Give the backbone structure.
Amino acid sequence: MSKKNVIAFSVLGVIIVLICIPLVYVEKRRAYYDKWGELAVLAETDERAKYIIDNTDMYSKEILKYFYSNPDEFDFVYNYAFHKNDYNNMEYTQAELNSESVPALYMDDPRWRYKTIGGDYIKNQGCVAVSLTMAYLWLVGRNTDPYKISMIAEEVDGIGFLGGITDEKISDICDVLGLNVEVHRYSENREKTAHANFDEIKSILDNGHVIMAGMAGETFGVHAIIIKGYSGDKVFINDSASPENTAKAWEFDEIEAELMYLYDLYV
C-alpha cells in the first residue's frame, strides 16, 4: 500500500470516528431520556432531579412510579430518600402527649407520610387514620399511630378502592383500638338528609369525648376532621390536611353545612 493510500485510509478513519462520536453521544442521550423521561427533563434545571437519577438505590420503584403519575409531587418524591425510615424511630413529642386539647397531627408528617394505606400514601389518603390517632392520643395514650391504624383497617377489610379507610369499617377499627363509638349520620351517599344539633355537639365535647366528623363539600372535599372544642358559636377543629384550617375558629354553620356523619369517640 502506497504512502498516499495509507494517508487516505487514516484520514477516512478519522472522519468515521468523528462521525461516530456524536452518534454515540446522541444514542446515549436518547437512551437516557427514554429511561428517565420527565425526570431527565427536570434534571436539566433542577439538581434534585439529577440527585434522584444518580442515587436510584435510595428510591423505591414505587416512589419513582408515583412521580411519573404525579409529577407535581416532586418535593415529596425527592425527600423520600431522607425520610423514608423516619417511622422506624417515630416518637411523639411531649407537647403532643401533654396537649391541653386533642393534639393536632398531619398526614404530611415525615414520621408516617411515606407509609402506605391500601394503594396510596398516608400523606394522601390518611385523614381517617390520622384523625383516629389524634383521638386515641387524647383519650388513651401513645400506643398507636396512623400506620398501625391503617394496618388494622386492612385486617378488617376497611380499605377503600382508592386507598383510604371506608366509613363502614370505622366502628370495627374503633373496636380493635378499644374505643367506644356512637355514630350519627346526616347523609345518604354524601347528600345531606339531616342536620347536626350544636347543643348535641357541645354535650359530647363537655363529656370529654372526641368527635371525628366526616365532611363532604367545597371547603373540605371528602375528608375526616376532628372537632375538639367550642366557644360561643365557634368550633375548633384539627384538620390533618391543613394547619391553616386547624388554626381557624369556625362558625358552627360552616362546619355543619358539610358534616355528613359524626363519630362520638370515648373510653
In short: The beta strands are 116-117, 120-121, 180-185, 187-188, 191-192, 210-215, 223-231, 234-238, 249-251, 259-266. Residues 3-36 form the longest helix (34 residues). The mean pLDDT is 90.
